[in-house]
Amino acid sequence: MTPAIREALQFCPNLPTLPGVAIRIIEMGRDPDVNIGALAGVLSKDPALASRLLRVCNSPLYAKRRSTTNLHQAVMLLGLNATMTLALSFSLSEVYRSSNTNRAAVDRVWRRALISGLASRMLGETLKQNALDELYLAGLLQDLGVLALSAAVPNRYLDLLAGYQTHDRFVEIERETLGFDHGEVGAWLMRHWGLPERLAVTAASVHDPNQADILEDARAFVYCVSVAGHIADGLLDEQPQPALDAAAAGAATLLGLDEQILQVLIEEVVEGLPELGRLFEIEIISPNMAQGLVDQARDILATRNLRLIHQVTDHHQKVVEMEQAAEILQKAAIHDALTGLHNRRHFDEVLENEFAQATDNGWPLTLGFLDLDRFKQVNDTHGHVVGDAVLVKIAAVLKRNLRERDYIMRYGGEEFVVLLPGHSKKAALKVFERLRTAVEATRHMSETGESFFITTSIGLASHMDGEHHIQDPLQLVRAADRALYDAKRHGRNCIESVLS
Ligand SMILES: Nc1nc2c(ncn2[C@@H]2O[C@H](COP(=O)(O)OP(=O)(O)OP(=O)(O)O)[C@@H](O)[C@H]2O)c(=O)[nH]1
User: Fold this and answer.
1) Do 222 and 274 reside in the same domain of the chain?
2) Are 307 and 348 found together in one domain?
3) 374 lines ligand 1 (CB under 6 A)
4) What are the tens digits of pLDDT across the range 473-496?
5) pLDDT surpasses 80 at 65
6) CB of 14 closer than 6 A to ligand 1?
7) Whether 375 and 288 share a structural domain
8) Which of 319, 356, 483, 488 is the most buried (most CB within 10 A)?
9) DSSP one-letter string for 327-350
10) CB atoms within 10 A of CB 336
11) CB atoms within 10 A of CB 452
């Protein structure tokens, strides 16, 4: 919260206030020795509140065989906690009622609060939590900050409130515009009123229950209220799907409850709303719409799994496509597009690896460069397209004349490189001679149908050549390159080798 807003809250003359009797009740709540008689005494000071409490006791929620006619009996029947919670919630309804800001929006927030309170309590019951009355109150209070902000900064806040469509979007807008949301302000007001700290912490963290720094034992409490808020939105929003999705996701990840349990719970919440509405004298949801909302929620939750499966399948499909694209790119990165042979980049890696193995194991290794002779003439005479076709054909011929574990790569232009692991220079010479004659014997065709031939010069170098040992891959490359130069110098279409 910004200092300016804090100041506006502190000095706001219209800040929502609790009736005196509610303040007394809060004080009594802090007293471990509070007794029924004393509480009944305080409640009797507010006749409207007292009569509402009696109505609760005689409502189907609590009614026993005998009707309850006096406050003492009512407090006995409800228990201390429930009495205090109900008394506070009735006081709170007065706070909402007396708010003289945007009525429609405040009504919406109050209806959300009532549904959240009921749903929080029911979630707590499902999860066998013990502080059910407090959970109900926490649900009811979670949007109290809206009232406080409407009173403290009406000019700025009422414009925001006028645009209220869904709760989650509203929280986002608050954060974008004010830099904080009403949860924080609600927590401030609860502390100001002296309400139990757990209620304030819940309001402050309910919008981001995952990220909030909540003590371990308060987590389930906050999570129930957060999921309850989404349930309330699922029943109030015109487009309920996002809220119900959020409710289902929260129920599953935060509370470990599946869609079926959530659906039953929503039905129970909707069943309990008319009674709750009577107690608070407000129509929370129109009875005509109630069944439709339950059916809608059932459809959304039932198809949620299907939607999730589709999403996962789509996601999986995308991952597969990305992997395929990455594979294609990786292949392209080490292959020559024209001939399909590996390229120089791959050669560098292979040479490094084979050289290390040959050195470590004392194996022979021979490398040869093959450079087509007077290839420029081919291009000049027959054009580039025919030149390309020659390169493709020669690549295939070279490959065909080598073993599976020999390497052949296009080094660049009209130059190929062959690496023969396990071949001494003597053995390699035979292989290169075979390659040379195969190239020489290959017939090529011009675009006009004339056939022509091409030859290759070859320079080779061996890793161990008699007494001479080459120290690193680069030296081997340089030695083969020098040999190739010699072959060109000695008239082409021949093989030369050099000692290192
Ligand atoms: N068609 C085609 N030509 C290429 C390709 N890459 C390189 N060349 C050509 O290959 C020719 C190489 O010419 P030079 O380096 O002068 O060598 P050369 O004509 O083969 O003569 P020597 O090597 O001395 O026998 C150039 O004309 C390049 O344009 C290619 O991918 N396709």
Assistant:
1) yes
2) no
3) yes
4) 999 999 999 999 999 999 999 999
5) no
6) no
7) no
8) 483
9) HHHHHHHHB-TTT-SB-HHHHHHH
10) 20
11) 14
Ligand 1 pocket check for 414: Cβ under 6 Å: yes
Query: pLDDT digit string (tens) for 103-132?
Result: 788 888 899 999 999 999 999 999 998 888
Pocket test for ligand 1, best of 339, 386, 414 (most atoms within 8 A of CB): 414
| pLDDT digit string, tens, across residues 158-181 | 888 888 889 999 999 999 999 999
Tell whether 357 is covered by a domain.
yes
Which whole number is the average pLDDT over 362-373? 95
Between 312 and 134, name the one with better pLDDT. 134
Q: Are residues 81 and 186 in the same domain?
A: yes
Q: Which numbered atom of ligand 1 lies nearest the CA of 412?
A: 6
* Contact indicator for 265, 122 with CB cutoff of 8 Å: yes
pLDDT digits (tens, 9 = 90+) for 411-451: 999 999 999 999 999 999 999 999 999 999 999 999 999 99
Q: Is 178 found in the same domain as 123? A: yes
Total number of domains in the chain: 2
- Do the domain assignments include residue 25? yes
C-beta of 413 in contact with ligand 1 (< 6 A): yes
Q: Is the CB of 388 within 6 Å of ligand 1?
A: yes
The whole domain housing 452 covers 344-497
Instruction: Assess whether 356 and 221 both reside in one domain.
Output: no
Report whether residue 320 contacts ligand 1, using a CB cutoff of 6 Å. no
pLDDT of residue 500: 41
Q: What is the DSSP letter of 448?
A: T
Q: Do 250 and 364 share a domain, yes or no?
A: no
